[in-house]
């Protein structure tokens, strides 16, 4: 009976080491996009950003080395980001194909509130006020 308890204890200690239910990485999150499903190892994503980098947050099991996480440089267009996790024996690689677009700039010079006057109306109003001022100086108005 004592031997059986030893065998069961040893098995309970060894089985978790031999069988790893989860991968080396338990979570991948891309700032501006969100958490990625670890049912896959590759994703095609789109991101609209003015930044030249993206933050990739990775949670891994203890003792695992991860490369490709943190603040990663990106440029407009297609970017291939690789995340590699290794425990010394096994390695896992994840690929994020990130298409980056820059937001369209509003070059009208108008405030975003929509409260504006077109410059042509301002020019016409200014010229009209100057003309009225000059005419009123030449003509004398009498009060009756």
Please specify the SSE layout and strand pairing.
Blueprint: H1 2-18, E1 25-30, E2 34-36, E3 42-48, E4 53-60, E5 65-67, E6 70-73, E7 77-86, E8 91-101, H2 119-138
Question: Can you characterise this structure?
Answer:
- The chain has 2 helices and 8 strands; from the N terminus they run αββββββββα.
- The model is unreliable at 16-21 (pLDDT under 50).
- With 144 residues, the chain is of the alpha+beta class.
- The strands form 2 sheets. Strands 2-1-4-6 form a 4-stranded antiparallel beta sheet, with no helix packed on it.
Let me know the largest β-sheet.
4 strands, antiparallel
The CATH architecture term of the domain at 2-101 is Sandwich
Return the string of H and E elements: HEEEEEEEEH
| Fraction in helix | 25-40%
Strand numbers in spatial order across the main sheet = 2-1-4-6
Summarize model confidence as the mean pLDDT.
Answer: 81
How many beta-strand elements? 8
Please work out how many helical segments DSSP would assign: 2
Class by SSE composition? alpha+beta
User: In CATH, what is the class of the domain at 2-101?
Assistant: Mainly Beta
What percentage of the residues does DSSP assign to strands (E)? 35-45%
Which stretches are low in confidence, meaning pLDDT under 50 for 5 or more residues running? 16-21
In CATH, the topology of the domain at 2-101 is named Immunoglobulin-like
Instruction: Please give the radius of gyration in angstroms.
Output: 33 Å
What is the first-to-last residue Cα distance?
126 Å
Shape: rod-shaped
